[in-house]
Every structure is written in C-alpha cells, then in structure tokens.
Amino acid sequence: MTLDGEKLGSSVESEVWELLDADDAVADETVYLVAAALQGDEELADQLGGDLPSPTRPDTQSPAASAPLRAFLRSITVSGFRGIGPRATLELNPYRGITVISGRNGCGKSSFAEALEYALTGESYRFANRAKHWRDSWRNLHSGNPTAIEVDFAMEPDDDRSGSKVAIGADWAAGADLSECRRWSQIHGQKREPVSALGWDQALLTHRPLMSYDELGGLLEDGPSNLYDALNRLLGLDQIADADSRLKGAEKQLGIPRKTANDSRTQLIRTLEESEDPRAAEVKKLIARKPYDLDAVTATTLGTATDQAVAIARLRAIADLDVIDPAKATEVAAELRSAIDAHADGADAVTKAMTARATLLREALHLHAELGGGPCPVCEMGTLDGEWKSSAEQRLKEADAKSAEYQKMTQRLARARAAADGFFAGVATVPAVDGVDLESLSAFNDAVTEARSVPGNLADLPSHVESSAAALAEAVSVLRAEAATLAADLEDAWAPIARVIAAWVDLEAAARIGDNKLAEVQVALKWLRANAETLRGRRLAPVVDQAREIWGRMRHESNVDLGGISLEGSANRRKAVVEGSVDGVPAGALSVMSQGELHALALALFIPRATTPDSPFRFLVLDDPIQAMDPAKIDGFLDVLVELSKTRQVIVFSHDDRLPAAIRARSIPAQLLDVTREEGSVVVVKQNDSPAQRYIADATAVILDDSLDDMVKRKAAPGLFRMAVEAAAHQRFFTDSARAGAVYHESDALWEEAKTTQQRVALAVTGSATGDLSGWKRYRTHRFPTMAICASGAHNGAALDRTALQDLRETVRDIAENR
C-alpha cells in the first residue's frame, strides 16, 4: 500500500518546465523568472539583476543518484528517560511485518516511542505541545542518570550494495536540560557524526514515519493550515511555495520605489496647492496625468536657479554628514594597545627557543617511532629509549601549549591591527560646492587625509586612531554647522518647494527603472500560482485515492464517506479542505466525525505521506492509534496493517490487548511484545504469545477436543504442526540473519526458495535449506516424530495425543531458542 512512484517521484522543477513549454502565451521573461525562483534566492536575484544567462531546465537524462539506504528498526535502548529508569531494550524484528507492543498505561511503552522520536528529530510532539511543568519531567524520577537513548537500525539498500549497521542516539549529562542533549549517529566501523550526516533531515519532514495518539488528533485539530503544510511537503510542493515566497518578496521589494514615488507625488500635490508661485501651478499640470514629463518638471522647477538649487542640496547633504565615533576609536585603540602588550610579553627568547625545541623533539620522536630506541643522533651520548620518549612527549606537550598560546596572541594582534588600519577607510574627503565658500572644508579634508595616513610604527597607531578621530569629530562639527547656515541663507521662498519637487523627480526616476521588472515579476507570480493549482491537483490525486482506500477499510459501520481533499489559498490563508458526506448528504467531513473517526481519517492521511517510495524509512511507528476506535474500526485498522506489512515494518504501541487479540483471532503473523513496569521504573519487555505458540494452542484445541472426529483431527492437526514449526523457523532464521547484518531481501529470497518444512527448519538450524538435519533430529527424541508429522501427517500408527503436543512444544522451543 504505497503511492505511485511515477506520480510523486518526478521533479517538481521538471513538471513546471513541462507546463511552461505547454503554455504558448508565456513570455520568455516569465519562464526565466519562474525557473530562477524555483532554484533559489541567489538565482532569482541574479536573474533580476541580469547577471546570469537564462536558467536551463533540469537534466532528466542524467543518471539518477543512488537511492538512499532504507532503514528497518532493530532495537531501541533507553535509560533514565521518561518512564524508563534502568537500561531497557526493545528488540524488534528488523524486517517487513507487524509488531505490536502492548502494556497498560504508565508501563513505559510510549517512552520507547518518544525516545525514538527524540533521537531521530531532536524534539517531541508531546513535549512541544504540553505545559512547561510536563516538559520538565522528561527525566526519570527513580533513575535519571545516566540518561541516554540508542536506536539500532538494519539498513537495506535497493541495489547491490551490502547492508550497513547504523545507530543513532541521544545522551544527556547529569543535570542537563532536555534541549541540551548530544545527538549522534554512527555507521558501523566509522566514527560518530551528527544525526544529520545520515541525510534524513528532509525525509523526516516529508515522510515522517512516527505518529503518536496526540499527533493523530493534532493533525486535524491543530487547524487546516497544519494539514495543508503536511500534504504540501508530501507532494513536494514546498518548492513551489518557496518559489512563490521568493517572487512575492521580489514583488514587494521592487514595489517599494514605486509606492514611495506615488506617496511622494501625493504629498507634492498638497505642497503645490499651498503655493502662489506660478511655477507651482505649472508643475501641478505636468504631474496631473501619466506619463509624467520629468524633464519639463525639472526645467520648470529650477529655471535659472539650477546652480543654486544644486548648491543648496549639496550643503544640506554636508550638514547631515556623519563620520567616525570617537568612542569607537577609543575602543579600537585600547584593544590594539592591549594586543601589542600581550604579544610583546609572550614573544621572549624562551618562547622562541621552546618553539625550536619543540620542533627538534617532534623530529626525534618521529625518529624513535620509526627506528626504535638507540643513541641520540645529535649528541651521540644519550639514549632514545622509552623513558626518554615519555619525558620528550611531556616536554613536547608543554612546548606545544606555549606555542599555541603565542599563536593566539599573534592572531589577536593581527586582528587588532587590521581594525585600526582600516578604521578610517570609510571616511572620504568632501568636494567643494560650486559657488559657495566653505571656510571649514579645507580643515575637514586635511583631517581626513591625516586620519587615513597610517603611521609606519605600530606603537604609534593607537594614539593615531584616537587623536585622528577626535580631530575629525571636531572638524566635521564645524563643517556641518557652517554648511547648515549657508544652506539656510541661500534658500528663498521657492527653494523648499523646489527641493520637494526635485526629491519626487528622483524617486519617480528610480521607480521607473524597476517598473518593468516589477511587472515581469507580477506576471511570473500570477502564472506560478495559477499553475500551482494544476500541480496540486495532479500530485494530490494519488494521495486522495489512497486515503479514500484506507478510509474505506477503516470506516466499518461509519455513516461518513470521504470525498475529495483540496489545498486552497496560500501563506496565512492556506487551508486543507476535506469533503465528505453523511448517508449520502454532502457535509464537511471534519465537522461530523467522532473522535475515533477523526483518528481513523488522520491515519488515512498520514500513511500515504509516510509510505511513499521516496521515503528511506522502511518502518512505521504508531503510538496508541486505536485508543479512540471502536471494535469495528480496529478490525479495519488491522486490515490496513496487514497490507502495509507487505512493504513496511509496522510497529504499533497499544495500551490494551484489543489489537493483539484481533491478530490472534485471525492468526495473522506478527511479533507480539508485552511491556511491564516494575518497582523503581524497571521496564521489562517479553514475548506476548509468538505466532508459533498460537499455532500450538490451535493444535492443542483441535487434538484435545473430544467432540471432533478422529479423521478431522488427522486432517487438521498436521497442518497446524507444520505452521508452528515453520513459524519458529521463520523467527529464528530472520532474527539470526538480521543480527549477522544480512540484507533482508536476500534472506527473504532464501526463505521463499525453501518450500518444505524440512528445508525451512534446515535453513534456520544450519543456515542452508539443503543442510543435513539427521543429526539434529536424532539429538533429542521429540524432534523426529514432530518432523515426521509435519512432513507426512499422522499415519502409520502415529498418535495425535498429549505426547505429540509436548513433542511439538519442545521442538518449537528448540528451534526458536537455538537449544
């Protein structure tokens, strides 16, 4: 039960290019902007700036990258975390199939699920959605140290690469907070690395393989935007959302100059209406309708006073001039002095000698490592023996430490000097203003020139920075005051209006530069949003089909029928709409469902997301999914689990025995485990009625039923004997194979090739379907008669009685427990 790989496996970018190619009306500029927006922020910025050639479509002909390693869960080991005190391990069958872990509330079973979630993701849905006092109780009260999680995986590639053993974990120091854990991953035979090194980060978002009871409810109860985001990630449309966001951001950025110019024009009109100058009326006519003649506006505004207006504008700019902060200069100078002093103190002859000595010692140690002990090649008197080696290593360690300290001081001095050298780099001289005599300008420019003249002596540099900053501050203060005074003297009644007009002209000219790009971006954004709907529909269809299929299996006795699912809107207006009907009457599905139905629907939506072919996780973990389900829903849920177990390792945590009971009743092969919590948070995991034991129980019920005819018993019982023995052999073979690191599909092929009970037992016991079992059968007396019944049934006088049943139990135990 997985999604069609062809429908979700193709590149979103490739599909967008297909839609662009199919649209005859789309302009080249739109194609390039959409393609660049899909690729990233830098690509879009470069495309808008014209710095790159046109984007190229993705190469669909190049060989596909290697498929990611697919992981089965092998075990979860926990200590000191949540309900688990001393170290406890949950051993799992690391291959396709169903595993159910049962236990009463508070027994610690969910702690295993939460530990897996935290080790994989570094967070927990429950932790994130509970009050602070609940999150603070994550460490076990009885045995909170050590606190650690380790998860082992059986890795199965889908090509010829051999399987790899991989572990991830999380460790906390004593007293550490929940967020202060050290998460790690390790491939067998390699060093530990961050969990992100496995390349699963994106898959954990897109194909999250974990779902708790709280999260089941939250998927639908946290709001339609939460479901929208989950489905959007599954469909790969987050790339479209990112492109939409980039184009929207570009539209906003490009629109700023236009909005600023329009707002300035509105204010300018008010200013012109207040003036009696005839030039104001003329300018008002010129800006009454588009396109505005900016040259005519400028000519009318400035007239013969052009030079004066320019001079005033220059003076105003000088009056607003800002230079170096003396306080910052003091800080830079102080750091340089301190660095100089520290460096001088550390740069004595002893340090230099130790550096040279360290080099000599290191070379001598290398010689000792290569040639072993012997006379010193320098003095030819001492001996390079073990005692000398230990002493030399200690001296080398001390020399290296001093050398490292000296290097730090040197680096600090280099940084401080660079800061001082470049302190005045951003300060420039101010050119003269035509027609205006600024007396203080020369003094300011001289101060700038002096400040940027770095002294040759490093010791003089701190004082130079401080004195130059102070001189600059004084000079600029005088210059600003003089410029402001001269500007005020030069302005007349028209000058303020002329300045407002000139400012608007500049803004309008700047806005026109970006108008074309803004229009292109708006067209590209409109095209992308329109075609995103096409992509959503195309990619959502298989998800909806599978969700409806799963809901059809789980809706037993429900009057609610699931209809379509759609993703509507974007950004803060996004939502997922789930349609349905009640007894044929259309209604919003979410509004008419019971709690159990909502959970069943959440599973129907979660499973397609978690089981796509692209997911590297071959396991699915569901924590208490049946809590709110009635018996009919549980039976339908079991149907879904059976289908999923054909391609996935399905692990279900359950607080009661309803699901295991349903599995036993239908004789479905599954690993059933039971979790109990003893005094002091000691958590114990044990088998909860293995498949082999169920077949033994069935055989016992048949043989000891006095109401059944003997012929019926002889027909039915041998088949149950065979199934019990083969179930034990299956458990033994796959468990041993997984522990040995065998690739699952190879083990599965070997198992399927073994057609008879004899061959399958040989495979489990000897490792080969053709292995010789004669010695094994003779070793204990109960084995031969049991295998005979499995092979030929009850004939030639073989009795189907309590002795045969006891022989069966012992034989099954021998196989399963490797006795």
From TrEMBL:
InterPro entries documented for this protein: P-loop_NTPase (IPR027417), RecF/RecN/SMC_N (IPR003395)
Domain RecF/RecN/SMC N-terminal: 72-659
Keywords, comma-separated and alphabetical: Coiled coil
Pfam families reported in the protein's UniProt record: SMC_N (PF02463)
Domain of life: Bacteria
Coiled coil: 389-419
UniProt keyword annotation of Nucleus present: no
Record's signal peptide: none
Residues covered by region (Disordered): 46-66
Family statement: Belongs to the SMC family. SbcC subfamily.
Self-association state and partner proteins as the record states: Heterodimer of SbcC and SbcD.
Protein name as it appears in the record: Nuclease SbcCD subunit C
Biological classification of the source: Bacteria, Bacillati, Actinomycetota, Actinomycetes, Mycobacteriales
